[in-house]
Amino acid sequence: MTDAASGAGGAAAHRVDPKRSACLLIGVNDYRHASMQRLDSVARNLEQLEKVLLDRDIGGFNRDRVTVLGNPAAARQVTAAIEAAGKLAAEDTLIVYYAGHGMRDGEDNRLFLTLPDTERGQPETCVDTKYVRKAISRSPAPRTVLILDCCYSAQWTRDGAMSGGESGGEVAARSVRDLKGLYLMASSPHNRASHAPDPERCSVFTGALVEVLEQGDRDAGESIRLKDVFERVRDRVEEWAARQEGSDASAPLCTDENGLGEYAFVRNAARRPAPEPPAAPAPPARRGRALAVGIAIGLALGLSAGFGAPYVEHKLDGRPARQEARGACSADAALLDHSDALDKDEVDIDPVAGLSGLAFAPGGPQSVGPSTVYAVADNDAARIFPITLRSPDDLRPEAGRARTLRPHRGEPFGKWFDAEAIAVEKDGKAAFVAGETAPTIRRFDLASGDQEGDPLPLPKEFEIYPKGGATAGHTIESMTLSPGDRYLFVALETSLAADGDERGRNILRYRDSFAVHRASVRW
Known about the structure:
Elements: E1 4-6, E2 12-14, E3 22-27, H1 40-54, E4 66-70, H2 75-88, E5 93-99, E6 102-105, E7 110-113, E8 127-128, H3 129-138, E9 143-149, H4 155-160, H5 168-179, E10 181-186, H6 204-215, E11 223-225, H7 226-242, E12 253-256, E13 264-267, H8 297-308, E14 346-347, E15 350-351, E16 355-360, E17 371-377, E18 383-389, E19 398-399, E20 403-404, E21 419-424, E22 430-435, E23 440-445, E24 476-481, E25 487-492, H9 508-515, E26 521-522
Parallel strand pairs: 3-4, 3-5, 5-9, 9-10
Antiparallel strand pairs: 1-2, 6-7, 7-8, 10-12, 11-13, 14-15, 16-17, 17-18, 18-19, 18-20, 21-22, 22-23, 24-25, 25-26
Helix pairs in contact: 1-6, 2-3, 6-7
């Protein structure tokens, strides 16, 4: 996790990445024995919490990353679900939520989580939290956020400190080793009840949590840290408790291991983007409906010119005479629209940043109705964003979830790749992506992001000087495929060494794009 977000205090905080994390929401409301009161509020808790986690502007989780387990039948069903979610969250954060009755039992008054068949005074009908602790410790996820909305929930922390024969230092070391980083939000102290007075509404604690996440904090940054979320939830619960005469209600508690409270938990809903104004009526059709998209207008026009213009003689092993730029811009080219709607935009809390090359999905630009383009990002992690465009006269771009590109061995690309150009095959299943630091062209599966086959062979002249004539970081800048996918055309950012530093200075990109036609790579 390399992104940073500003918390309420202004300090930088790492983000919980919803694309690499997982949420497990467990709730028990349907108790079958008379000794256990039914908890209809729990069903509301699960519904509202799932909604806010799936909200693109708040939790940002995709549905396949949020699991709701209502009224589990057995303890093993609970621990197995934790282990499954932990594997899904192996790269980032595991979030486990439980709501239901809590019980304390045994010689050490250990915390037990109840099930539909639980009977009071019979801990064997419950989920022993020592097994929940073990399930979390078996998870490969480096961080865990545990939210317990049940009576005596802060007993979890006391149970963790109870281990016969161990010193306080040994217990602390074991806790860090077994649970790595864990942040606990407990709805009540170890000896107090939690409250759900209205069966038609969320419980007091979860209701406060949902409100904090849905409303955000106007004084915070783009995201809200875990510890700030908890503090605001605690304030709301304390305000509710102060209004209850004769109640034993008490404030929730938290436990922060390894500084996880500094992590940005969700996006700040108070900073939610303003709704887009109604679209203006599309202007009448004009001659030359060439689609130009903001930063890519030069690329779009350059590549279309490459197919329609004759080749320019440009020998890689010689030095022809200088040729001056000539000719006016085509009267058929017109800027129909531009947009900066993606500026500072995020998809699943993943910034849409570093966009470089663009390529249309099969079918190309549509004069009426939406089109899809693929944009490759040239920052640290090479990614491809699918972007929907409404029409040439009314772009309104909307980015989809990015796909991270991975070479054969599965490691992410580093800064050395510097992806600059993309070309999508006509069946829409694969794309060529070019990197310019050390020039390379690789083929990737668009669905998985995995590289297919070896990098394409490039002309020797494209290698970095002194092996070839290219300059590091100034090589392949744009790329396109011929209509039948037989030829791949590339454009260089600067001249090759054999070109000299004088010739064609004012038409450098076009000259190089035409020159490379003579060194096309067959596929």
